[in-house]
Design brief:
It is built from 13 helices and no strands. With about 300 residues, the chain is mainly α. Helix 3 packs across helix 6, helix 4 runs antiparallel to helix 5 and helix 4 packs across helix 13. It is globular, with a radius of gyration of 20 Å.
Length: about 300
């Protein structure tokens, strides 16, 4: 229920801050280095720009031509709605699909582009997380990884996970060529056999890898701003649960769920709870200016085209 989310979303964030020592979090934020925060903002902007490029690539592949400036504008407007409405990124994603539909894209291509765009990012996030864990094990970080439940598995568990995640979409694409192209499966099989799917898959791999590494860099800059001495690979490993929890449709823009996940994920690597919460808060804070730009674009669009008009 929407009203329940409206109540629970801020309560969740306040609860996390209260449990982990609100005063301690405040001290961390007051002492944050503005220079590193600025760098984090730059990485965040770059990540969202590449995200818009990745989405545009999908839109073009699905048959709708759209300018990058228009797609980036819709992306920022979606960010604004995700930050203002309960439901995290769900509301913003729905708005993006509707925006494409109003621009002339078909209902199926518009919705499929947003869904595939979101899945592409989440998939690559877990690939990088598992790959970073495997690499860290071979680089002498066994003790830290044992603390997160990898005892006795060595580097093979995360390496196997990374390879499995890489193989899954390739297997699905190949299997689609033998699925019956009829009934409810027709659109799905048509998607997997669409011309240029191999090239588009490669573009999604590249774009999603860049997006996630830039996003992790923004998260790591938040840690640098607080003076934390944490290796970059730790942020890559922990970004998967942190970003995934932020995407759950139970909060405003991931506030609260992201901070709770940061506490749990960073604790095994020696990061105190107030510092972990402060890192997650800084990551959310650097996204706010972009959301505000998106809000301005949204208001301007609504003035030109009132809600409900064709």
């Amino acid at each position: 229920m929407v009203w329940l989310r409206v109540v629970l979303a801020p309560a969740l964030l306040l609860g996390v801050l209260w449990v982990v020592d609100l005063e301690g979090v405040g001290r961390q934020l007051r002492g944050a280095d503005p220079g590193w925060i600025t760098v984090a903002l730059a990485f965040s902007v770059a990540a969202n720009f590449v995200s818009a490029w990745r989405w545009r690539s999908l839109v073009h592949w699905l048959g709708h031509r759209a300018a990058l400036s228009r797609v980036f504008s819709l992306y920022l407007q979606g960010m604004a709605l995700s930050s203002l409405l309960p439901g995290a990124m769900v509301g913003g994603d729905l708005y993006r699909a509707v925006g494409l539909r109003r621009d002339g894209a078909g209902t199926w291509p518009a919705g499929a582009s947003v869904l595939l765009d979101r899945l592409s990012g989440l998939w690559m996030l877990w690939v990088l997380s598992a790959g970073a864990a495997a690499w860290a094990w071979t680089s002498g970080a066994q003790e830290a990884l044992v603390n997160v439940g990898m005892a006795g598995q060595g580097r093979w568990l995360p390496l196997a996970m990374a390879l499995f995640l890489l193989v899954v979409p390739i297997t699905i694409i190949c299997a689609g060529r033998w699925l019956p192209n009829q009934g409810r499966l027709s659109k799905l099989t048509g998607l997997m056999t669409r011309r240029g799917i191999t090239a588009e898959f490669c573009r999604q791999v590249l774009g999603s890898a860049i997006v996630q590494l830039l996003s992790v860099a923004a998260l790591a800059c938040g840690g640098k701003a607080l003076g934390l001495d944490v290796p970059f690979w730790v942020y890559v490993v922990t970004a998967a649960p942190i970003f995934l929890m932020a995407a759950l449709p139970v909060s405003f823009g991931g506030w609260g769920t992201r901070e709770a996940a940061a506490v749990v994920s960073l604790a095994p690597f020696g990061v105190a709870a107030p510092s972990a919460v402060a890192v997650a808060l800084l990551y959310g804070i650097v996204a706010l200016p972009q959301a505000m730009v998106g809000l301005v674009l949204l208001v301007m669009h609504r003035r030109r085209e009132p809600f409900g008009s064709a």
